[in-house]
Amino acid sequence: MNAPTANWSYPTSIRFGPGRISEIADACRTAGIDRPLLVTDAGLAALPITKQALDLLDAAGLPAAMFSNVQPNPVDSNVEAGIAAFRAGNHDGVVAFGGGSGLDTGKVIAFMAGQTRPLWDFEDIGDWWTRADAEKIAPIVAVPTTAGTGSEVGRAGVITQEVTHTKKVIFHPKMMPKIVICDPELTVGMPPAITMGTGMDALAHCLEAYCAPSYHPMAEGIAVEGMRLVFENLPKAVANGNDLEARAHMMSAAAMGATAFQKGLGAIHALSHPVGALYNTHHGTTNGVFMPYVLVFNRPAIEGKIDRLAGFLGIVGGFDGFLQAVLDLRKQTGVPNDLGGLNIDGSQAETIAEMAVVDPTAGGNPIPLTKDASKTLFEAALSGALDSLGRVRH
């Protein structure tokens, strides 16, 4: 057997801990930003934490404009409007502020503001990222206000192409934020449903990265510890939003999941992306719905790995015990058992199956994700028939 070879990259400078938002102006200056555009989503624009960030920048002599025309599942017109605002304000950098939508949109705006080619020329396909003028990419400071996507430590943004209703990944290495401020106090105001959804996103990132067949033991180790943090802290954060320790651990788990998933993702995300694009569902919650169905589907390829994972997490019963722990976590935190709980019907099952197999995450699934397999998984998650995917022993 030949020794394995791989290309690895790990995240950026992270300032972690309660109260670290006070360092936002220093972070901007360190990143080389004097005229920041703060990009966030419409729901966060009027909240006190956003005003606090803007006031801190203003008090330090870095008055920032705000762009908040960002949908929960951001679309290309949001990016185009943000680029126009960036250029009109003569900004020299972006503070990406919020959950996945604000972070992804902010990063893509910073990336695209200096480019002359259209957005979709930089989709994460092959070496398309090399088409960009790297010198024209504006610096980014990322400030997550949720604990799920981990986009603050990622080199890509997920944007929905409105014409095709397809989620696409825009990638460039210089989209990695130069500095991240992870302040768990900013997540205290998240309602239980958003805490649950973002937390399940972090778990899905760690789980799929762990199961992906590519060789990346560092990412795999991070994924394992990230899952431990989610299982131990997500129920606490959902039950008591003021539990700052649980919030902090979930913020760590989110960054760990995004660090780990450079190893790969899989069918959970491949199915969740088209469902979110077509039905505008919350991405993390959708991941949580699909999770046990994909686990059972992948069982022949991952049972040994999940047995080891269960042992590390202190879960008795190997694969079956881990599957039950996932089901229990979903029930405890309020994840719907099936897609009907997200108001999804079967009318677009064929389209979703077709979109899933070409999603960029599909290739990381431990078992090849065919159109028939995608449709079977979707229909099982729609009906709640977990046993239809294989014999599950409890």
Descriptive report:
The protein has 12 helices and 8 strands. Helix 2 (48-59) links the parallel strand 2 and strand 3. It has 394 residues and is α/β, with parallel strands linked by helices. 52% of the residues are buried. Helix 5 crosses helix 9. The model has no long low-confidence stretch (mean pLDDT 95). Strands 1-8-5-4-2-3 form a 6-stranded parallel sheet, sandwiched between helices. It has a two-stranded antiparallel ribbon with strand order 6-7. It folds into 2 domains: 13-187, Rossmann fold; 192-389, Up-down Bundle (Dehydroquinate synthase-like, alpha domain), CATH 1.20.1090.10. It is globular, with a radius of gyration of 20 Å.
Overview in brief:
By secondary structure, the chain is α/β, with parallel strands linked by helices. The chain has helices at residues 24-31, 48-59, 76-88, 100-112, 192-211, 217-239, 244-260, 267-279, 283-313, 318-333, 349-358, 371-383; strands at residues 13-16, 36-39, 65-67, 93-98, 140-144, 156-161, 166-171, 179-182. It contains 12 helices and 8 strands.
Can you give the mean pLDDT?
95
Distance between the termini: 38 Å
Number of helices: 12
Low-confidence blocks of residues = none
Overall helicity: 40-55%
CATH structural class of the largest domain: Mainly Alpha
Shape: globular
Write the layout of secondary structure elements.
Blueprint: E1 13-16, H1 24-31, E2 36-39, H2 48-59, E3 65-67, H3 76-88, E4 93-98, H4 100-112, E5 140-144, E6 156-161, E7 166-171, E8 179-182, H5 192-211, H6 217-239, H7 244-260, H8 267-279, H9 283-313, H10 318-333, H11 349-358, H12 371-383
Parallel strand pairs: 1-8, 2-3, 2-4, 4-5, 5-8
Antiparallel strand pairs: 6-7
Helix pairs in contact: 3-4, 5-6, 5-7, 5-9, 6-7, 8-9, 8-11, 9-10, 9-12, 11-12
